[in-house]
């Protein structure tokens, strides 16, 4: 594991940003405790933001684990989540060839791992999507990404976040 790749914090300083590149390219940027994480997504996995919303929704609803796949031809990354007692353990793992499942773990590279409060992670994620919508709107998102904004997933995440904020979760 790289130096400083594992972090534990009760109240980490963090910020997330979803940067839309040209058609079919995006980056998830996560600044946490002085560490900068950058994960690239391509049109090969156009549902990545919606999938990410679904995982955050599930964590807020009490799920114990989940993952999101970011395709960055030919490789990519998976972000794994394991939750217990209101804390989520996040691992970002890079793969040189996601199209070759037999070699995933032989060539996998742990890029970052750490634990933080699930609610704080979710709050930062919500702020990131709000910022994305403020900047592009749903029409601008479609124009830049080439696919529709995942509105149904966003609505479901909003509901889960509201319930969790009012004590309505098992997490």
Strand and helix layout:
Layout: E1 6-8, E2 14-20, E3 25-32, E4 35-42, H1 48-60, E5 65-72, E6 75-84, E7 87-95, H2 104-107, E8 109-117, H3 118-145, H4 151-165
Any overview of this molecule?
The protein has 171 residues and is of the alpha+beta class. The protein has four helices and eight strands, in the order ββββαβββαβαα. The strands form two sheets. The chain has a five-stranded mixed β-sheet. Strand 6 and strand 7 form a beta hairpin. It is globular. The two termini are 28 Å apart. The relative contact order is 0.19.
What is the structure about, briefly put?
The chain has 171 residues and is of the alpha+beta class. It has helices spanning 48-60, 104-107, 118-145, 151-165, and strands spanning 6-8, 14-20, 25-32, 35-42, 65-72, 75-84, 87-95, 109-117.
Low-confidence stretches: 1-9
Largest beta sheet, briefly? Answer: 5 strands, mixed
Helix and strand content put the structural class at alpha+beta
What is the 3D form?
A: globular
Span between N and C termini? 28 Å
Strand segment count: 8
Helix content: 25-40%
Number of helices: 4
Q: What is Rg?
A: 16 Å
Spatial ordering of strands, largest sheet: 1-8-7-6-5
